[in-house]
Amino acid sequence: MNTTITCRKALPTDVEALYELIQAYALQGIMLPRSREALLRHIDSFVVAEEAGRLIGCGSLFRLGADLVEIRSLGMADGYKGKGLGTMIVNALIEEARALQVPKIMALTYAVDFFVKNGFSVVEKEIFPEKVWTDCVHCSKQHACDEIAVVKLLS
Ligand SMILES: CC(C)(COP(=O)(O)OP(=O)(O)OC[C@H]1O[C@@H](n2cnc3c(N)ncnc32)[C@H](O)[C@@H]1OP(=O)(O)O)[C@@H](O)C(=O)NCCC(=O)NCCS
């Protein structure tokens, strides 16, 4: 049976499914963990993909400064990778950034090719002091960060 996949803003009722999706990646060391409380507090920043009422992907937008937002917590559920959903969610987040009139969108990632395919460029992470002072100071990997910074200019 073919079912439709939709992309929408997250709702408070998505918190548990979001928590489980993000926590599974956090345990693998490829995402920062987010508590249920933090997810609820920032639920408006999340976009989710859904199929037949099941949450199958997510991503969020975090403002780092007046002219910069970051894509965070981007992940698809097992069995749903490579189907264009990551691209769909990134495009939705880019549209949100545009609506906020923010000119730059960045991410710290291991999935470099995915972002390059979506029009991002690899840059030195040191060009984002805003990122270092909000998140990295709390990260256990801060002195040995192996994630790659990518950025896209939105005109
Ligand atoms: C990375 C991720 C979000 C991409 O979403 P997706 O729905 O699988 O990606 P799409 O189908 O939209 O795009 C697929 C393209 O991106 C590339 N890609 C997908 N995952 C990738 C990865 N981990 N590393 C490098 N490139 C990747 C593929 O090569 C593919 O290119 P192709 O279409 O030419 O074959 C998803 O694979 C995922 O959840 N990965 C685990 C969590 C993660 O690494 N999140 C990123 C944190 S910033």
UniProtKB/TrEMBL annotation:
UniProt entry tagged with the keyword Transferase: yes
Q: What is one Gene Ontology biological process annotated in the Swiss-Prot or TrEMBL record?
A: L-arginine biosynthetic process
Supply the Pfam families for this chain.
Answer: Acetyltransf_1
Name any one GO molecular function.
L-glutamate N-acetyltransferase activity
For this protein, the record's InterPro entries field holds: Acyl_CoA_acyltransferase, GNAT_dom, NH2A_AcTrfase
Q: Which Gene3D superfamilies match?
A: 3.40.630.30
Cite the entry's keywords alphabetically: Acyltransferase, Transferase
One GO cellular component this record assigns the protein to is: cytoplasm
Q: Which residues form the N-acetyltransferase domain?
A: 5-146
Q: Which PANTHER family match?
A: AMINO-ACID ACETYLTRANSFERASE (PTHR30602), AMINO-ACID ACETYLTRANSFERASE NAGS1, CHLOROPLASTIC-RELATED (PTHR30602:SF12)
Protein name, as recorded? N-acetyltransferase
Organism from which the protein derives: Cohnella xylanilytica
